[in-house]
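FAQ: What does the model actually see?

It sees only this:
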Amino acid sequence: MNLDFARSQFPALDGDWVYFDNGGGSQILQPVLNRLQDYLITSNVQLGASYGVSRRAASRLAEAQAAMAVLVNTNDPAEIVMGPSTSVLLRTLAASVGETISPGDEIVVTNADHEANVGPWLALERRGAVLRFWEADPTSGELRLEDLLPLLGPRTRLVSVTHASNILGTINPIRAIADRVHAEGALLCVDGVGYAPHRAVDVGELDVDFYAFSFYKTFGPHHAVLYGRKELLLDLPGQSLSFISEDDVPYKFQPGNVNYELSYSMLGLTDYLTALASGGVGVDALPVAVSRTAIERAFVLIAAHEEVLSRRLLDFLTDRPGVRLLGNVLPDQALRVPIISFVIDGMKSADVVREIDAHRIGIRFGNFHSPRLVRALGLDGDDGVVRVSMVHYNTVEEIDRLTALLDALV
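And it is asked to produce this:
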């Protein structure tokens, strides 16, 4: 991967801060900012009018919809619902599913997920749904497929699970999970927030029914996307204005309509990935046509670089007595993304992080909205863990800055 090119596309990296809190929010791409500014200057009007600028705005929104379909590898842009956050989109989805629930229907959630993918489903207990918890292994924190199987049955309507843990970095076997869930006639909803910044999302290969992630953790603004199978989106009741047709997807799941400029700005992500795939060659020609092949190539490069980053930090931490690493200790890109969490014996996670803050390195402590997992691992639900969440624009030299400071603490 051309790291110099990658870093040049993120204006915030010109400063002297090291950003290792990317699991909370990544830095934003210049191509995204370019698209955002262009939209607001040249097409900032309401859609649906007959005059030229309104037609241009509508065309741009359709272009963004199509690009995000390529990003997750679906052929139908109508399967792309955009909104302000993954939390909001999953709550909208759960509200729609809830209207189809019969008392006694079962939904499976995990104790390893971000609350955004737990709370909305728990709320369906008020409609008579029975919630079952798929519990993570208390030692490794990982979800084992054999523990899911006894929870599935003829009344199972939906299983909701994360693709990559926002604390452990562990990648869950979504296709294997989908096969088992579908064998029982149930649906699968996946929170991809921890996965999408690191690997190419392929909803067809994964065979998921719903898949959501946030763009502000994937190099864009505070905006998000939910993929849903079209036949399911058509069947589910809408959550928009009463006169919106039930056949009008994705609009019926976007009350008040979608944010036009943020949606259009995300074309900057596909611009960037296409350029990254070619090593930065042709960047002056941006914007460029969206290419699924280029997206996949870019993420191959990203994954290889991130494995180097993971290995550097994991090698340091595994050699230190008194450090408890959480999740898989192997840097293998097939097993984990570069989200690495740990605790240090005799130290509060908050104190570790505050020691680092003064050196202009951004890491974080806490439960990261996954308190059930933190408690299941036997840790303080509030103080939680120290988390270093890296992405591909980070460098080995930045990790060495961090480990030099940690070395003095351990």
